[in-house]
Write a structure and sequence with these properties.
Mean pLDDT is 79; it is low at 1-5 and 81-85. By secondary structure, the protein is an alpha+beta fold. It has helices at 2-5, 16-24, 36-57, 87-95, 130-137, 148-154; strands at residues 102-108, 113-115, 120-122, 140-142, 171-175, 181-183, 186-191, 195-200.
């Protein structure tokens, strides 16, 4: 529909910069007229979210609002947050979003573990030559924030990683060929084309009949 409204077709990737500029610029005619009410509502929601994020970030400013142009370091820690933050909570602040975790995808079968691409890792994940480690790290993904708590609670490094300097703190998400991996109340599986897929979630309580 958007393509028809533009009166033609798009050439990717050559027209991507122009499309991005139109959508994120000041233009007001980037959607068909029938979508304008929804577009306006979405813009108002986005503006409110940005303002809320700015207010939340004030607790972590190192200086007073407007003081970042000062020529001296006076007052640099005016807004420093008291106490200490856990690493991943601080990372969420930096990313300006909900807390999330990174995991490394590995394949598990009856013999042991393989990299996502299929290379043998050993019974406990200990077969770690330099090129294999590079392949292992290449399967690092950031999980959706809804999986943060079950991932922190249930996932850990493979036993063969616990003495490795790069992997000893990395959580492994074990994937099997036949069944999805259970993570909390979610089911996780990997598709070669679509990537990591998440199904399920907390069940809503049934509605009471009146």
């Amino acid at each position: 529909m958007a393509c028809a409204a533009d009166g033609g077709s798009w050439s990717v990737p050559s027209e991507v910069p122009r499309l991005v500029e139109r959508v994120y610029g000041d233009a007001t005619d980037v959607v068909p007229p029938a979508w304008s009410a929804d577009e306006q509502q979405a813009r108002q929601k986005w503006t409110a979210q940005q303002e809320e994020r700015a207010r939340s970030a004030e607790h972590f400013l190192l200086t007073r609002a407007g003081g970042h142009t000062n020529e001296t370091l006076d007052g640099l820690h005016y807004g420093a947050a008291p106490g200490s933050l856990a690493e991943q909570r601080l990372e969420a602040v930096v990313r300006d979003g909900e807390r999330s975790v990174e995991v490394i995808l590995v394949r598990e079968d009856q013999r042991g573990y393989h990299t996502l691409a299929g290379r043998w890792l050993g019974v406990n994940g200990e077969a770690l030559s330099d090129d294999v480690v590079e392949e292992v790290l290449g399967a690092t993904v950031r999980l959706p924030s809804k999986l943060t708590e079950p991932a922190e609670r249930e996932l850990a490094p493979l036993d063969g990683w616990r003495s490795h300097p790069w992997l000893k703190h990395s959580r492994a998400l074990k994937l099997t060929a036949d069944t999805p991996t259970t993570l909390g109340e979610y089911q996780v599986r990997y598709d070669e084309k679509l990537g990591l897929l998440v199904d399920g979630g907390p069940r809503r309580p049934p509605r009471r009949r009146t």
